[in-house]
Design brief:
Blueprint lengths: L3 E6 L6 H5 L4 E4 L3 E9 L6 H9 L11 E7 L15 H13 L9 E4 L2 E3 L12 E2 L3 E6 L6 E6 L9 E9 L2 E5 L7 E5 L2 E10 L6 E4 L14 E7 L5 E8 L2
Parallel strand pairs: 1-14, 3-4
Antiparallel strand pairs: 1-9, 2-8, 3-5, 3-7, 5-6, 8-9, 10-13, 10-15, 11-12, 15-16
């Protein structure tokens, strides 16, 4: 059986992890999961209701067991009056990659991508699609140094084959943002599951020797440190092979 061991390098919540006073081990081998990606922007007046809907998942009993939400803020709204401090070009590139592979005419916000497929059900009040089948065992562990995570993935027999890609998100929770200009000017917006950092790396079929750098820009004085982490293994067509996530405190 293929065994991949992956090392997350960088000061990942360097000040927060040692202060937890407990070991962090997130492990999952469950057969089904739902990865919810929201593409959003503080400059988009249609986005706050979508983010409010995502925030409701924080109270769901399915969270971190079957449902894994992440909110990527794109940067193509930044030139229209309000530069979103959470927006990154790499998140825009990810959305455009989806648009190309899913044969969409364009990118837009808010857009939901669920289990690698465009999902417009939110606009019509529909329930989430059925969870996607997953396989194998993915384990994420905070290392004793307090600044790195390691990830172990053991594929299941008969599961999707390599090449795999490992993805990792650091998430902010309960972050408030005072928007002063643009379409949401004068509003205070709340963000949950917002991506503060994201990295991905293609993995070969060979065991061992893989690592993924997850840089950080937070310090003990930062008011909005990461509060959760999500990592998942996918195939080139964005099929989620296995996923794990949870709170950091």
């Amino acid at each position: 059986m293929l065994f991949l061991r992956l090392l997350f390098l960088g000061s990942l919540a360097a000040c927060a992890l040692p202060a937890l006073g407990r070991e962090i081990v997130l492990q999952r081998d469950s057969p089904r999961a739902t990865l919810i990606e929201l593409y959003s922007s503080e400059g988009c007046s249609s986005c706050p209701p979508a983010e409010q809907w995502l925030s409701q998942l924080a109270d769901s009993s399915r969270l971190w067991q079957e449902v894994f939400p992440v909110a990527f803020h794109v940067d193509y709204w930044d030139g229209l009056g309000w530069p979103d401090r959470f927006a990154r070009r790499v998140y825009t590139d990810r959305q455009r990659d989806y648009a190309a592979k899913l044969h969409q005419d364009s990118v837009y916000t808010p857009e939901f991508v669920v289990n690698g497929q465009e999902w417009r059900g939110w606009f019509h009040g529909e329930g989430l699609p059925a969870p996607q089948a997953t396989a194998g065992n993915l384990k994420l562990t905070a290392n004793p140094d307090g600044v790195t995570f390691s990830a172990d993935y053991q594929p299941a027999a008969g599961g999707p084959g390599a090449p795999y890609t490992l993805h990792a998100c650091l998430l902010g929770m309960g972050i408030m943002s005072d928007v002063q200009r643009g379409e949401n000017g004068g509003r205070e917006l709340r963000h949950d599951f917002i991506v503060l950092d994201f990295q991905s790396q293609r993995l070969s079929a060979a065991a061992g020797g893989h690592f993924l750098a997850v840089p950080t820009k937070w310090s003990a004085s930062d008011p909005d440190p990461p509060k959760a982490v999500v990592a998942w293994i996918s195939t080139p067509d964005h099929e989620v092979v296995q996923i794990v996530g949870g709170r950091l405190n």
